[in-house]
Amino acid sequence: MPRLPSSENPVPFVDLAAHHRPLANEFCRKLAGLLTTSDFILGKEVSLFEEEFAAYIGVRYAIGVSNGTDALRMACELIDLRPGEEVLVPANTYIATAFGVTHAGGVPRFVDVLEDSFTIDPSKIEAAITRKTRAIMAVHLFGCPADMDPILDRARRRGLWVIEDAAQAHGALYRGKRVGGIGDIGCFSFYPSKNLGALGDGGMIVTNSSSLAEKARMLRNQGQRARYVHEIIGYNNRLDNVQAAFLRIKLKKLDEHNRMRQEAARHYRRELAGSEVKAPLVPPGRTHVYHIYSVLHPRRDAVREKLSEKGIACGMYYPIPIPFQESYRFLKHRKGDFPVTERLAKESLAIPIYPEIRPAQIHRIARIIRSAVSMRPQHSARSRAAPVTR
Ligand SMILES: *Cc1c(COP(=O)(O)O)cnc(C)c1O
Question: Can you give the pTM of this predicted structure?
Fold first, then answer.
């Protein structure tokens, strides 16, 4: 069978094999070294990575943990969240943001998001605050920083903590500061497909507070500061030394990889300009790192179908808003409670973006999208001809 020209090949949603290929030798050398030293648990690589990551984000302390979900739960424990107390969480985020609060015994109180940046709407925060509210969770969704100034301002005035979920935004900037280091506690995930990803699970807590850092170190390691002295109820929530070693190699490339994502986003914007799909906006004063490139269109499902026919992998972030998930049914939310989030669930479509994506692939994806949205919706002719029954 003749091979298809490369422009007709399928495009994956992310290409981790291509991403790791240039680093394979360095990974293997590192692993060989660790096999000799057997330095596996809270070893030297973990402390070096913590130092390097703290310096990169611009914070005093970084504590390597097991994954992003645990980091979020630990952040809630660090502020001594008590059973039933509330944390404001954007309605449009990955489920783990809310689970972190619930795992710590708290209750997520959902707040709708802004349509431009998909991040929490600061103007809706005040109305969501109750006597039980202890913290605001700011999620830098898709790699776009949330609007931190009004969030911090509101939090200071109401005596609330600010926790940042920066799991999708390693390296993103808000008014010149790296996200994660702006609020009281920042949480990161190193899930393999994140902008900075391990070869497995991993996470990080960052803070400028020495007491919070000390407590985080105890929480992640069975509640102990000194061996076999367990001061608090802790967990096994440690970052693997092997993963830390891989992450140190990848941290050196993070800025370059983010620049490649930004270049891909520029291509998409240019290629989609003038079409009916809405490309993501970057509000002034922020640097987006494009973990996800999500566009909006009222006929999202038709566009998605066209792309998948042509072998283009797409995603939806997120198809069922968290307040309407079965797991949070007990909060009794109703349709219409989160109008922007609900519309995003129907209209947003994430198209492939990763550092290695090529301009020809972007060109082809944009061409398919443009032709899909310029086509008349298939039901319109019929619905116009049908008698009006109301
Ligand atoms: C990935 C992610 C998490 C969870 O991180 P894990 O390492 O998978 O546990 C939390 N919040 C957001 C926004 C994420 O994207």
Answer: 0.94
Distance 274 CA to ligand 1 centre (A): 34
| 165 Cα: distance to centroid of ligand 1 (angstroms) | 8
The amino acid occupying position 48 is L
Helix (H, G, I), strand (E, B) or coil at 146: coil
C-alpha to C-alpha distance for 59 and 81, rounded to whole angstroms: 23
3 pLDDT band, cuts 50/70/90, is low
C-alpha radius of gyration, the chain, whole number: 22
53 Cβ inside 6 Å of ligand 1: no
Q: Stretch 101-130: mean pLDDT, rounded?
A: 97
Cα distances (angstroms) measured from residue 7 to each of 15, 296, 310, 331, 363: 16, 25, 11, 48, 9
Long-range contacts of 80-83, Cβ-Cβ distance < 8 Å, separation of 24 or more: 81/105, 81/106, 81/134, 81/135, 82/106
Reported as a single tens digit per residue, the pLDDT across 161-191 is 999 999 999 999 999 999 999 999 999 999 9
Tens-digit pLDDT profile for residues 321-350:
999 999 999 999 999 999 999 999 999 999
Q: Which atom of ligand 1 is nearest to the CA of 139?
A: 13
> 193 C-alpha vs ligand 1 centroid, how far in Å?
10
What whole-number distance in Å separates Cα of residue 148 and Cα of residue 39? Answer: 39
- What mean pLDDT do residues 15-35 have? 97
Q: Please tell me the distance between residue 62's alpha carbon and the centre of ligand 1 in angstroms.
A: 17
d(CA 288, CA 29): 33
In short, whether 90's Cβ falls inside 6 Å of ligand 1 is no
**Two tokens at 83?**
């059973």
How far does the centroid of ligand 1 lie from the alpha carbon of residue 136, in Å? 17
Q: How far apart are CA 250 and CA 58, in angstroms?
A: 18
Which atom belonging to ligand 1 lies closest to the Cα atom of 190?
7
How many CB atoms neighbour CB 160 within 10 A? Answer: 22
Q: Which residue among 66, 69, 292 has the greatest number of ligand 1 atoms within 8 angstroms of its CB, and so is best to mutate? A: 69
CA pair distance 115, 343, nearest whole angstrom: 9
Q: How far apart are CA 115 and CA 269, in angstroms?
A: 17
Distance from residue 176's CA to the centre of ligand 1 (Å): 24
